[in-house]
């Protein structure tokens, strides 16, 4: 753990930041990539969605605390490999423990996703890296297919990938194969060196209209509700939607879809 200018950072024995919390605002999303992952709420503009969330990789519990504070009816399951991460999140990052809305499993995310086939989730969030920022087996087509099998009929997979490096292109190809090309990949947050976090969404079930005015209106509403600022995300969404629009058949009327 390190701390600077009122922000507490989590590290896994290297310089890579694995999570952060502004001490004065522990339920806010300090890192931009965590805010961008919550853009799934723009794509699923339903106050009751998601009812069940699965998160692979706990980190500093930023995503967990957001759901806990702003979606009080959401049930969360967190799969974390290292029990020391859970202890640190509780002791230093204000993770609520012993709450019936948060179920923490100490397990390997890949094996758990493959073996525990009973539960289904509306939203699966993958934010799991090792101390060298490697995604490992969580970047394979097999793993993405296991994720798809765990989604409900209105399900969405949300991934934090590491820019254009660390096997990014292959991961996107695997994701498109597993989700029948229903993938919305945003450009990296750090455009200067293409090494920043890149957030990707994959959907199942009824197709989602990617209507930009509606997305902007939902972003404004979400800002009022939670304080999240998604100006940069809306720019990247606009770019990603334009790419989908060019790729989808011209005969499809209306806004492009995911």
Sheet with the most strands, sense and barrel status: 7 strands, mixed
Strands of the widest sheet, in order across it, are: 6-5-4-7-8-10-9
Number of domains: 1
For CATH, the homologous superfamily is named as: Vaccinia Virus protein VP39
Query: What is the helix content?
Result: 25-40%
Radius of gyration: 17 Å
Query: Helices and strands, in N-to-C order?
Result: EEEHHEHEHEHEHEHEEHH
Number of strands: 10
CATH class: Alpha Beta
Q: What is the count of DSSP helices, taking H or I runs of 4+ residues?
A: 9
What does the model show?
This protein has 258 residues and is of the alpha/beta class. It has a single domain (29-247), classed as Rossmann fold. Helices cover 34% and strands 22% of the residues. It is built from 9 helices and 10 strands. The strands form 2 sheets. The protein has a 7-stranded mixed sheet, with helices on both faces. Strands 1-2-3 form a 3-stranded antiparallel sheet, with no helix packed on it. It is globular. It starts with a strand and ends in an 11-residue tail after the last helix. The model has no long low-confidence stretch (mean pLDDT 89).
């Amino acid at each position: 753990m390190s701390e600077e200018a009122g922000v507490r950072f989590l590290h896994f024995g290297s310089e890579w930041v694995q999570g952060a919390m502004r001490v004065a605002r522990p339920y806010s999303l300090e890192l931009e990539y965590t805010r961008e992952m919550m853009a799934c709420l723009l794509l699923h503009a339903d106050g009751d969605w998601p009812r069940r969330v699965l998160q692979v990789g706990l980190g500093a519990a930023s995503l967990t605390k957001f759901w806990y504070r702003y979606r009080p009816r959401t049930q969360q399951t967190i799969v974390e490999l290292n029990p020391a991460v859970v202890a640190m999140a509780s002791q230093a990052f204000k993770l609520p423990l012993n709450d019936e809305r948060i179920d923490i499993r100490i397990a390997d995310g890949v094996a758990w996703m493959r073996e525990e086939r009973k539960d289904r989730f509306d939203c699966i969030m993958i934010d799991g890296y090792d101390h060298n920022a490697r995604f490992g087996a969580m970047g394979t087509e097999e793993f993405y297919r296991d994720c798809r099998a765990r989604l409900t009929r209105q399900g969405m997979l949300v991934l934090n990938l590491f820019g254009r490096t660390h096997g990014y292109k292959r991961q996107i190809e695997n994701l498109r194969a597993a989700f029948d090309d229903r993938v919305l990949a945003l450009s990296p947050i750090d455009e200067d060196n293409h090494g920043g976090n890149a957030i990707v969404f994959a959907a199942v079930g009824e197709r989602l209209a990617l209507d930009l005015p509606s997305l902007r209106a939902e972003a404004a509403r979400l800002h009022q509700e939670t304080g999240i600022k998604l100006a940069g995300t809306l720019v990247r969404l606009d770019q990603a939607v334009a790419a989908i629009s060019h790729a989808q058949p011209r005969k499809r009327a209306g806004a492009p879809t995911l």
